[in-house]
Design brief:
Shape: elongated
Mean pLDDT: 80
Number of helices: 10
Structural class: alpha+beta
Largest sheet: 8 strands, mixed
Bound molecules: zinc ion
Low-confidence stretches: 82-90, 104-116, 325-331
Distance between the termini: 41 Å
Radius of gyration: 25 Å
Strand content: 25-35%
Number of strands: 15
């Protein structure tokens, strides 16, 4: 049934397990929502797998932060060790300078996590701020207009021009207050919020360097968190695979990578593993039921096999702190 609708997954071609999972969940979600989809219905897939993340862009010149929120079903996270070390260090210094300017919180173990690849290290890299050039900062733009209008108003003007500039200045000052308030309270600005300032912004935007940081919204973390490691990478015309081991433990604390309130801890329930290369690889899975790990490889099923250190997609289940003791299982270490 699924293959009939998604023929690219049929036959004997090489497939991507992460892409397949995303497509399967999307199909299940669509079927539950019905046709045409009802926007008021949140499917079981959404309720179980969907989380919310926040992107924070901070202007390095004025320190104003702009927040946007989006939904995600599974995270795609780069393998931390795949980053080229020397150029990464240069980038790091730039990022560190920008962070100091913007006073952004940083995972305290970032350096050591980066050097020792683990799921936590990969997540630290994923949520670590990057620098973007040419960001159009609304606050800096309005500051430029405020200075320009104040200068013009100090000169000789006829009454109607003076009135026009004074009105503009009131609008600009209101805009500065609004943007400051949204930045301080971490509130995303809506289109209605920024609409009165669109003409200033379109006519003469002020571009600055900015830091961009992604974090999970703690209280909106999903019931089941899927983390796919970006092991396949396009370099020019070639796709290469990164086989580096990535360490992981039975539990995962998402607090260091989350904002906005308490973030849950997770317990590993299953791992998808890709062995081999791009020309001919093989997928296996290791899943936990109670305290027993079971390895699945086509028709071969073996109990008591723990997942190895080359995971591709990891499936974590949120720990219900009150019931934690009932579902305890031995640690992987
Ligand atoms: Zn700015």
């Amino acid at each position: 049934m699924f293959i009939k609708k998604h023929r690219r997954f049929g036959g004997f071609r090489q497939q991507d397990a992460n892409e397949f999972t995303a497509c399967l969940l999307d199909q299940l979600s669509q079927e539950e929502a019905g046709r045409p989809p009802r926007p008021d219905v949140r499917s079981v897939v959404d309720r179980v797998f969907q989380g919310r993340q926040q992107t924070c862009v901070t202007c390095t010149a004025c320190g104003t932060s702009y927040y946007t929120e989006s939904l995600f079903t599974g995270l795609n996270v780069p393998v931390a060790s795949s980053l080229p070390h020397d150029s990464e260090r240069v980038t790091d210094q730039k990022v560190m300078d920008a962070i100091q300017t913007a006073k952004l919180p940083v995972h305290q173990d970032y350096e050591s996590l980066h050097l020792c690849p683990s799921i936590e290290g990969c997540l630290a890299r994923h949520t670590f701020p990057d620098v973007a050039q040419g960001f159009k900062c609304l606050y800096c733009t309005l500051m430029w207009y405020q200075a320009a209008l104040t200068k013009k108003l100090s000169g000789e003007l006829d009454e109607s021009t003076k009135k026009e500039y004074q009105d503009h200045l009131v609008t600009v000052k209101e805009g500065l207050e609004l943007v400051s308030e949204a930045s301080a309270s971490r509130r995303p600005l809506s289109d209605e919020d920024t609409e009165p300032y669109d003409t200033y912004f379109t006519r003469r935007p002020v571009r600055q360097a900015a830091t961009v940081r992604v974090a999970l919204v703690g209280p909106a973390a999903p019931q089941v968190l899927m983390i796919a490691l970006t092991r396949f990478k396009q370099t020019g015309v070639k796709v290469v695979k990164n086989n580096d081991p990535v360490g992981f433990r039975e539990t995962l604390d998402m607090a260091p990578f989350s904002i906005g309130g308490p973030a849950p801890r997770y317990r590993l329930r299953g791992v998808t593993i890709h062995s081999g290369g791009l020309g001919g690889g093989h997928y296996t899975a290791v899943c936990r039921a109670g305290a027993t790990w079971t390895h699945y490889s086509d028709s071969s099923v073996r109990s008591g096999v723990k997942p190895d250190v080359q995971p591709y997609v990891l499936f974590y289940e949120r720990i219900d702190e009150e019931k934690e003791d009932l579902d305890e299982s031995p640690d992987l270490e």
